Structure formats: C-alpha cells, structure tokens
Amino acid sequence: MRKIIHIDMDAFYASIEQRDNPRLRGKPVVVGGLPGSRGVVATASYEARKFGVHSAMPSSKAKRLCPAAIFVKPRMQVYSAVSREIREIFRKYTNLVEPLSLDEAYLDVTENKEGIPSALWIADRIRKELKKRTGITGSAGVSYNKFLAKMASDLNKPDGSTVITPGNALDFIAALPIGKFYGIGRSTETRMQSLGIRTGADLQTKSESELIRRFGKAGAYYYHVAHGRDDRPVTPFRIRKSVGAERTFQEDILRIENLYEILETIAKSVETRLAKANAAGKTVTLKVRYNDFKTITRSTTVRDFTNNAGDILEITRPLLDSTDAGNIPLRLLGITLSNLDLSLDHSPYEQLELPLD
Ligand code: DCP
Ligand code: MG
Fold first, then answer.
1. Near ion ligand 2, which residues have CB within 5 Å?
2. pLDDT in tens, 121-161
C-alpha cells in the first residue's frame, strides 16, 4: 500500500500578505482585483471567509458582503518564491513531489529519505517546518492514494492534518457531496444532480459501464474513486527552464525582409507555447545559423516578464540586425525565452482548471 500526502497551504496569497504586513493580521483581507474595478477575488483570509467571501467572486460583491475587508493586489513574484521554498521542504522527504499549483503538492512517502514509517508523522513534521521557514501554515491529507489524500487535506483546514484509512475510506466518500469530488466541476456536478447523483453514496450505486456511457473516460475515474481506488502515480516534473521555437529553411535566405517576416512567425509560435505553459520570460535569445552551419546566439534580458509576440519581435529584431543576417545567407532562425516565471496559471482572473472537467 502506498503512503501519499497532499499538502495545501492555508489562504495562500492572503496568509503571505498578512505575514508581510502586520497591519493585516487578524483582519478580513481580500487578495485580487480592487472592488472599483471589474476584478475578482483570488483568495480571502479566513476572517473574510466568515462573511461568505471566496475565490473567483467579483471583488465588488466581496466588498458588499464584507465592507470592512482590506483589498490587496496580488504580488505573484512573492508567492512564486514561497512556492519554491515549500517545494524545497517537500523534497527533503521525497523526490516524488508533484505540484498541483503554487500552494499544493502530492508527495509519495512510501519510501522516504528519512526512513520514517508513519506518513502522518511526516505530514506533521513538514507542516511544522512550513510554518517555521515560510511563516504561513498548511494543511495535510494522508491516505493510500492521490484522490483520498487530496480530499483529506480539506477536512481540517486551516493548520490541520487528516488521515483516511482503507477502513474508513468508503464511508467518507459516501458522505461527500458530489460537487466536492476532485475532478467534478460545476457542469459535471449539474449533470450528476440531474441523474439523481447527489453524494458519493449515490455515485457508488452506479455501474462503471453506465458512468462511462454518460461521462466518457472521466466516467471510469468517477467509478473508481467512488470505490476508493485511484492508482495514478505521483509524478514529479522538472520545472521548465525555457520555451522556444525555431525554423530551418528549405533554402538558405539572404534577404533581411524575408527574415523579419519569418522572425515574426517564430515569435508568434513562441507566444502560443508560452501561453500553453502559462509562462513568461525575461531573457530572449535569438539563434542564427549561417549557411556554413556556424551557429551563434544573441540575448537580451528585459526588466519585465514578456509573453507576447509583439514584444518578442521588438526585442529580437535588433538582435538579428546585430548579426551578419542580410550579408550571409541563413539556414535557421530560432527564438527562446528563458528566466521564466511559470506562475501565470494563478492569475487571479482565471479559475483553476480541474484535470477532468
Ligand atoms: N487562486 C486564484 N483564483 C482562484 C483560486 C485560487 O487566484 N479561483 C489562488 C489564490 C490562492 C491560491 O491560488 O491563495 C491557492 O488556492 P487554494 O484553492 O489552495 O486556496 P487558498 O490557499 O487561498 O485557501 P485554502 O486555505 O482554502 O487552501
Ligand atoms: Mg490553499
């Protein structure tokens, strides 16, 4: 049996704001767009949640629900730094760390670097260390698979741990409202409700073939997790270092105007790839290969993160001008962005995406 921990920081952005500004401690704090704007709430401190304020709610509504709330704009750079810190702490125990977002991750501690047999013990030790090193608290779910660990980490929030064992898993799932299942979003919840599936107990009565017929591949996932089964492994991924695109030409190109045009199409594909990776970069590198295969690179590092084709083109054109392009025919052109910020998936204006919905 595996030992999986899911850790999720408490009111992540808001806790960091309260940590860095004592004036905000113990107060209702809303991080996100300001109420005058058309922004939304990224998150709210637990003091603000008592008034019904939550993530993805229009900030103007948050203000109505909690007039005393203090609104703070997100500081993504700081949250990314804390995110890196918490991942470092996780990796002290296992290399099998799979981040789900900036503030949460799965850990497989079946085998762990400290040789600790109890996963709950590890979870609590990690939580102590999180508090000490980052100044904010996190909650943990401990179980024998990812789904149950994820569901468990919510049960004793904030600042708590919960264990789900094979002995109590089925009862726990039976009592779960269907919308709480990880992987069941708003639209699937509505469809399930219309089929009379309101809780885990209702889901447990459905056959796998019926769920697959109605929900496709996701139906098989619903069926298995309803019965406490989830054999997805914890898969750590390497943090991306760069995003780029290049073109090798069918015939060498001399005319600088043609090269500018190609540069623009490459910048556009880099833009698309950056969007897919939710990334932006500060260092833009141009790669040029001459017809004799000699290859050179030229880089510029800019002050603000960039992720759009227009900016990338503006930066790479002078780089291209600084080479022998236009005098010597080229075989290849490429653009790479590095020095990446990968946290844009947490733009407060976007809802978190669920994997199966
Ligand atoms: N976030 C966001 N927009 C959302 C949801 C979340 O920008 N719709 C950001 C802000 C959160 C962070 O992601 O602080 C982590 O999301 P969580 O869902 O883990 O929420 P919190 O950590 O804020 O609170 P909780 O204590 O419930 O985990
Ligand atoms: Mg959280």
1. 8-9, 12, 103
2. 999 999 999 999 999 999 999 999 999 999 999 999 999 99
